[in-house]
Design brief:
Elements lengths: L4 H25 L1 H26 L4 H33 L4 H14 L4 H14 L8 H10 L2 H9 L30 H31 L1 H12 L4 H44 L8 H11 L5 H17 L4 H26 L7 H15 L1 H20 L4 H7 L7 H10 L3 H15 L1 H21 L5 H32 L12 E7 L5 H11 L4 E5 L6 H11 L3 E6 L5 H13 L5 E6 L6 H10 L4 E3 L2 H19 L11
Parallel strand pairs: 1-2, 1-3, 3-4, 4-5
Length: 653
């Protein structure tokens, strides 16, 4: 039993969905391998411009990679050292701000009604948790520790002995003297150390893999590029090379631009917080301003969540440390101003078209990759989505990705124009046509908007997707837009004539007469109207009645003796009728030029042209611009031949 096309399409769709599911599952379950690989690739994209610049300065590849890697390592080490020092200072200073925290909690409790008691209890808990006095028995433990030797202290830490219950009365008056006590054996320090080491080794191993991948990709980047082209090109080296170059260029420009923006943002934020602390606080300093600047620089690499977190931390510190709300409001105003300038001025200027993905795609990508790979997926979401969009732009099978996620939706103006016609939105369709006319001129507006829409109406009508009434309504809508185009063309022509010098005689610029006729469908009358509109300055195009027989049309043309005849053919169909009409015109004795305007792209153009030539046609055109240019050329040739300076043939006696 033969398999139908619909069954094959269904099988192909199911296979594609299954491939997508398997790919996502592989990315999820093998994330321990793919995450370091993706991070290494991202780091190599970020460092490649530096390596290329060093090589242009004459430094060999491997030394350039080593210098770049050393610079990146020193920069990261300095950043993490600074973060560690600032975090240590912050943790040490937090207990000193206990009174302000309690005061803010109680002030908020006073402004509320139902939650006042709960917030007041919270303030008491904060006070109790951050008491300055040491716990009972702590002095005794410190005194015993001072009397022991260093060896005894290390022995007690590694192999602790059972501690006797405290002699404090269990009267329940404080948290240190509860009514009931249950002793729980703690884990041995060796076991806790092993657990801590296991927790730390995972990120360290990932960092090591990222470093190895990045160095390997930087050193062998040209070799890897050639191998990828050889594997995935399938002989199409041009498309593969362009796709790889575009993806690498977009990601590198995006990462460099983001690094510049985030670093500038962090520097300005740290400077602004320092100025706020210097001018608005009694101590003359904002706590850990450098920490918040560096943290903002790092967090802003994560889409959406990063900038929010970077704004929360300094705002919370300003609210909890300083009395009143003036410092808090100043910090919020500073961050808001920075975000507005960064998002609306600096980012569009530096990013430009560096990513090529839409704003909605950035959100969807952040959600998907964050779900798939966690926080690392948020960091990698934009570069990975850029690769997918470039893949869809160059590989037809994945074009749907570029359409859904790309920044510029590749919808032809004729499709948008036709969609508005189908929706009976004549106003919007008119706007699309006029905008295209103002931007590119009449010829391209006809070739790229009007004529493709007319052909689609014909195609959908022949496929019975449109009824006769619907098709006629759409044709009438298009016909109603031609007078507005004619007005604009006439205004442009009048302006051009006013700018030129006036002619010497009143009868010198009489336009030549051309007769146009349909081949088989009334929609071709619209094509003739557009040709008449485009030839106002060069020729005068007159039409014949649609309901006339070919013999009658031929007699009218033979009697009128025009400069040329144009026969409009709007496929599908019309070729046989055009040839028959051309033969009828020649039989009536007409000897002028006959132009067949077959509007479309034809694979068998040569064979079709030969058939028309045998029928008596002078030329065959396939677009509005070609047809108009041919008619103008015929008119200009006649004007030159009619000129007194044109050389006349001499008679040889």
């Amino acid at each position: 039993m033969a398999t139908t096309k619909s069954d094959l399409a269904t099988i192909a769709t199911v296979a594609q969905l299954l491939a997508v599911v398997l790919t996502v599952a592989a990315l999820f379950f093998a994330r321990d391998v793919f995450i370091p690989l993706a991070l290494g690739l991202l780091l190599s994209f970020l460092l490649t411009p530096i390596v290329d610049r060093l090589q242009r300065w004459g430094i060999p590849n491997i030394p350039a990679v080593v210098i770049t890697a050393a610079f990146a390592f020193v920069l990261l080490a300095g950043t993490f050292t600074l973060l560690g020092r600032e975090l240590t200072s912050l943790v040490g200073d937090l207990p000193t701000h206990k009174d302000e925290l309690v005061s803010k909690a109680r002030s908020i409790a006073g402004m509320t009604t139902g939650m006042g008691g709960e917030l007041d209890d919270l303030a008491d808990e904060v006070t109790q948790a951050m008491v300055k006095d040491a716990a009972p028995g702590q002095d005794v433990a410190d005194q015993i520790a001072e009397e022991q030797t260093i060896f005894q202290q290390w022995t007690d830490k590694l192999l602790p002995t059972q501690v006797a219950p405290s002699d404090l009365p269990n009267d329940g008056t404080t948290a240190e003297s509860p009514l009931y006590v249950q002793s729980v054996e703690e884990a041995l320090p060796l076991a806790s150390w092993a657990s801590t080491a296991g927790t730390l080794l995972g990120p360290l191993a990932t960092a090591g893999l990222v470093t190895v991948f990045a160095l390997f990709m930087l050193i062998h980047r040209e070799d890897l590029r050639d191998r990828m082209i050889a594997v995935i090109s399938h002989g199409n080296y041009v498309t593969t090379t362009e796709a790889l170059d575009e993806a690498a260029g977009r990601i590198s420009r995006y990462l460099v631009a983001q690094t510049i923006i985030n670093t500038s943002y962090g520097f300005v934020l740290a400077t602004g917080l320092s100025i706020i602390g210097l001018t608005m606080t009694e101590s003359g300093a904002f706590p850990n301003a450098i920490l918040w600047g560096v943290l903002a620089t790092c967090l802003r690499f994560v889409p959406y969540l990063g900038p929010t977190a970077a704004a929360i931390f300094p705002s919370a510190i300003a609210l909890s440390v300083f009395p009143g709300y003036s410092v808090f409001l100043a910090v919020v105003a500073l961050i808001t101003t920075l975000e507005l300038i960064s998002n609306n001025v600096i980012e569009p200027w530096l990013y430009g078209t560096s990513t090529g993905i839409s704003a909605v795609a950035v959100i969807v990508a952040a959600v998907f990759w964050g779900w798939l790979w966690g926080p690392v997926g948020l960091l990698l979401s934009t570069p990975l989505t850029v690769c997918l969009v470039v893949l869809g732009r160059y590989v037809p099978r994945f074009k749907i990705i570029a359409t859904l996620l790309g920044e510029d939706v590749e919808i032809k103006p004729s499709i948008r124009f036709y969609q508005r016609l189908l929706a009976l939105d004549e106003h919007r369709a008119h706007e699309i046509l006029l905008q295209h006319y103002e931007a590119k001129g009449l010829e391209q507006a006809c070739d790229e908007v009007v004529l493709p829409a007319l052909k689609r109406i014909r195609t959908d009508h022949d496929a019975e997707n449109l009824s006769d009434a619907d098709a006629n309504r759409l044709f009438e809508m298009v016909a109603g837009m031609i007078p507005e185009l004619e007005n604009r063309v006439s205004l442009a022509l009048d302006s051009q004539l006013e700018a030129e010098e006036p002619s010497e005689g009143p009868g010198e610029n009489v336009p030549s007469r051309i007769i146009g006729t349909n081949s088989h469908h009334h929609s071709e009358t619209l094509v003739l109207n557009l040709l008449r509109l485009g030839g106002q300055a060069a020729y005068q195009l007159d039409g014949v009645e649609d309901d006339m027989m070919p013999q009658d049309i031929a007699r009218v043309i033979a009697d009128a003796k025009p400069l040329a005849v144009v026969i409009a053919v709007l496929p599908k169909g019309g070729f046989v009728q055009a040839r028959y009409l051309c033969k009828a015109i020649r039989r009536e004795g007409y000897s002028g030029a006959v132009v067949i305007a077959c509007l479309g792209k034809f694979k068998n153009f040569d064979k079709l042209f030969v058939k028309f030539r045998k029928a008596g046609a002078t030329a065959m055109t396939t677009s509005y611009s070609q047809t108009r240019s041919k008619l103008v050329a015929l008119t200009q040739r006649q004007d030159r031949q009619a000129s007194p300076s044109f050389p006349q043939p001499q008679t040889i006696s």
